[in-house]
Design goal:
Elements lengths: L9 E3 L9 E6 L11 H14 L4 E6 L4 H12 L3 E7 L8 H8 L3 E5 L1 H4 L2 H5 L7 E3 L6 H7 L1 H6 L6 E6 L3 H9 L5 E6 L7 H7 L10 E4 L12 H14 L8 H13 L8 E6 L17
Parallel strand pairs: 2-10, 3-4, 3-6, 4-5, 7-8, 7-10, 8-9
Antiparallel strand pairs: 1-2
Helix pairs in contact: 1-2, 1-6, 2-3, 6-8
Length: 295
């Protein structure tokens, strides 16, 4: 299987940006240069299951800038599986940097209209029935099971809050599943208007287990998924200058901004200790013009 680094830093925020609250960042972006952050955790059991079922091709869904797509392409190649990406939207004249990378790792693309992309179960019937299908973003029980291992490896009972960005909610479900009873889990939703994410998370959590509290904040998306207006870019550069912490335009920049605002608005007490999960995905920044970011 894919070799990932277990020597992961927990970086303590030192600047005034977080109002002297004890804020630390679990740098999962350092796990692997391609399958970074939460991606390997969410994919590992799907790939194992595909191999057990003697499938030779993994098919999945995503957009043109999806970290999940490029991670799946690389991870499949590393374990000897073919990969197919069902990509939202018409085929562009020029592939995004994400799709270029996924193509280099051997992924075959099928582009579908945004309207048809919603009907994923119908799309599956148009392809070879022997594919092993993985839901968009790795959503599902096996994705949650893999994401549960994040805190099994890196948690500390002194943390009062566990905070992460969320798209499908798969990683957050894993964090909720393994957080300690006294810890509060907080998700920062990267999608605009995804009010149903709380229900999606509940759907893949164990029903017979007492779980810690979790909640989702919906007002830090900066206009919607992958939107990156100039104030967000300015924040990313300011955060890098203050903390030398690289973030991406889709998830972690908005996550860190949300935590900064929560600190500013006294959401946390002076005795709280906050663990932020850096979910990787820095390759998404390659879509920006050169020199937009200082890192």
């Amino acid at each position: 299987m894919l070799s990932i680094s277990k020597d992961i830093d927990i970086q303590k925020m030192q600047s005034h940006l977080f109002c002297q609250i004890d804020v630390q960042v679990l740098r999962l972006d350092k796990i692997h240069p391609i399958v970074s952050g939460n991606k390997w955790f969410k994919l590992k059991y799907y790939l194992q299951e595909a191999i057990i079922q003697q499938k030779n091709t993994v098919a999945t869904f995503g957009g043109a800038f999806s970290n999940h797509i490029v991670a799946t392409a690389f991870a499949c190649k590393s374990v000897g599986l073919n990969s197919i990406g069902i990509i939202r939207g018409e085929e562009p004249k020029h592939l995004s940097s994400t799709l270029q990378a996924a193509k280099e790792y051997g992924m075959e693309f099928h582009f579908v209209s945004r309207a048809n992309f919603i009907e994923k179960e119908n799309l599956k019937t148009q392809f070879e029935p022997n594919f092993y299908w993985v839901s968009e973003g790795g959503y599902g029980l096996l994705g949650m099971q893999g994401a549960s291992e994040i805190l099994q490896e890196y948690n500390d009972d002194s943390f009062t809050h566990i905070i992460a960005s969320c798209g499908t909610g798969t990683m957050l479900a894993g964090l909720v599943n393994t957080a300690m009873p006294h810890q509060k889990v907080l998700g920062i939703c990267a999608l605009k208007g995804y009010e149903n994410i709380h229900h999606s998370i509940q759907q893949i959590l164990p029903a017979n287990k007492q779980l810690p509290d979790f909640s989702i904040l919906h007002n830090y998306h900066f206009g919607g998924y992958a939107k990156h207006p100039s104030p967000l870019i300015e924040w990313m550069n300011a955060l890098w200058q203050a903390e030398q912490l690289p973030t991406d335009i889709v998830y972690t920049s908005k996550l860190m901004y949300a935590v900064k605002e929560l600190c500013k608005n006294q959401y946390f007490s002076s005795t709280d200790k906050v663990l932020i999960i850096h979910s990787g995905g820095l390759q998404g920044n390659l879509s920006l013009p050169k020199h937009t970011l200082r890192f």
